[in-house]
Amino acid sequence: VQLVESGGGLVQAGGSLRLSCVVSGSRFNMNFMGWYRQAPGKQRELVAAISSGGDTTNYADSVKGRFTISRDNAKNTIYLQMNSLKSEDTAVYYCKALGANWPWGQGTQVTVSS
User: Fold this and answer.
1) Calpha distance 13→113 (Å, rounded)
2) How many C-beta atoms surround the C-beta of residue 27 within 10 A?
3) 3 state SS for 43-95
4) 68 Cβ partners below 8 Å, 6+ apart?
5) Of 28, 1, 11, whose CA–CA distance to 104 is shortest?
6) What is the pLDDT of residue 41?
7) Average pLDDT over the chain, rounded to whole?
8) Which terminal CB of the chain, N or C, has fewer other CB atoms within 10 Å?
């Protein structure tokens, strides 16, 4: 399995970014998928999750109402639309299937300046 995250960058507080993650080598449309993030000195945390069909989503309280996870099973891709970004959203963002023993991708850096 290979995961390739992209779309990160430097943005001012209040701005928006859209992350993408392309998955290859798995039966993508059968997996619940999640976006995780890891800030410097902190543990990696799950911030958003989406069911295999895309009809159910869940969010960490810290991002609820600001982030939206979605997926396109035809493209083996999941997305994370991030709005109203805050400095505390600064982290490396990763995608992965929930509960799967997959290797982590390289992640994509999101830096929010205040």
Assistant:
1) 6
2) 10
3) CCEEEEEECCCCCCEEECCCCCCCEEEEEEHHHCEEEEEECCCCHHHCEEEEE
4) 48, 57, 80, 81, 83
5) 1
6) 95
7) 96
8) C
